[in-house]
Write a structure and sequence with these properties.
Keywords: Cell inner membrane, Cell membrane, Ion transport, Magnesium, Membrane, Transmembrane, Transmembrane helix, Transport. By secondary structure, the chain is an alpha+beta fold. The chain is about 55% helix and about 15% strand. It has helices at about 35-45, 55-60, 110-120, 130-160, 175-205, 215-280, 295-320, and strands spanning about 1-10, 10-15, 30, 65-70, 70-80, 85-95, 100-105. The radius of gyration is 33 Å and the shape is elongated. The two termini are about 55 Å apart.
């Protein structure tokens, strides 16, 4: 899908594509899972090469930011959340001749939010670099929201692990806790990857390039964004360290539970060892055993053995030891 936005009536609105060609007034050209014909139309209109999906995936991290033919090529790892969970997806930004081209094969919410906001109002001097900064700010805001939600969930999970409830610790499902810890660790890892990508992009934009100059206002915004990204990175690292502590604590609690169960088994074994010893020596050596004269004594003994094996298992299961 190809969507071109142009300034009209105090806002940035999508413009119709006549014969599939991009109008010259377009400031922001958004390519979403583009077809080869749409790629060709943008290349003819803007005069830059649009990378394919395979090229975006295979590009090395050190080669994601470069200048070619008076155009800045920037491939960013963007945090994307959908039904399959959080992930990072590559998005390419091309800044050339005051226009911005975005190429993506996913649908992060930041793009729809920015299109809706700029569709209501935007400055008259809007250009590609302005749209890029607005888009980066929206992406950073979404990352901050994800981190805030993760922080709240991690705090609740920490209380669930370390605060003892009224019924004791036997109702804790450590498998579910470990699964939640793994999911939150995956989210923070994706967030840190996205923040590191934004940090590299901001540093790249802040460098002086005579072929693609930036306005002073944009450079000031870059400095503010760099501070925000650094703060979010520190918070993401804090959450990562907290998750590691929670993982170690959960594994330690599991070990304590297992040790307590083994201790109980050991105590029971010691308690029943003397009666077992006495029974094994003297139990079958009495001259008079009335049970031997009962016809159903043998089946009753078999049932008693089965019940004596089932009852401890049920008791241990009820106590949460198994």
């Amino acid at each position: 899908m190809l969507v071109a936005y142009a300034f009209s009536g105090g806002s940035l609105r999508p413009v119709p594509l006549e014969s599939g060609e991009v109008p010259p007034a377009a400031i922001w050209i958004d390519l979403v899972s583009p077809t080869p014909s749409e790629d060709a139309a943008v290349e003819r209109s803007v005069g830059v090469e649009v990378p394919t999906r395979e090229e975006m995936r295979k590009i090395e991290p050190s080669s994601r930011l470069y200048v070619e033919d008076a155009a800045r090529y920037m491939t960013l790892s963007v945090l994307c959340t959908d039904d399959d969970g959080p992930r990072v997806t590559p998005v390419t930004f091309i800044l050339v001749d005051g226009r911005l081209v975005t190429v993506r094969y996913a649908d992060p919410r930041a793009f729809a939010l920015l299109a809706g906001r700029l569709g209501k109002s935007c400055p008259a001097e809007v250009a590609g670099d302005v749209v890029l900064m607005e888009l980066l700010e929206t992406l950073v805001d979404k990352i901050a929201e994800a981190l805030e939600g993760a922080g709240e969930d991690i705090e609740l999970l920490s209380r669930r692990i370390f605060e003892r409830d009224r019924v004791g610790s036997r109702n804790r499902d450590y498998r579910a806790i470990l699964t939640l810890i793994g999911r939150k660790e995956g989210l923070t890892s994706y967030v840190r990857e996205a923040l590191a990508s934004v940090s590299r992009l901001v540093a790249f934009l802040g460098t002086t390039t005579e072929d693609v100059p930036l306005r002073p206002a944009v450079k000031r915004e870059l400095k503010s964004m760099a501070r925000d990204v650094q703060g979010l990175s520190d918070y993401a690292n804090f959450l990562g360290n907290k998750l590691q502590f929670m993982l170690d604590g959960t594994v330690g609690l599991v070990s304590l539970e297992q040790n307590n169960i083994i201790k109980i088994f050991a105590v029971l074994s010691v308690i029943f060892m003397p009666p077992t010893l006495i029974a094994s020596i003297y139990g079958m050596n009495f001259e008079h055993m009335p049970e031997l004269g009962i016809a159903v004594a043998y089946p009753i003994a078999l049932v008693a053995m089965v019940v004596s094996a089932i009852l401890p298992y049920v008791f241990f299961k009820w106590r949460g030891w198994l």
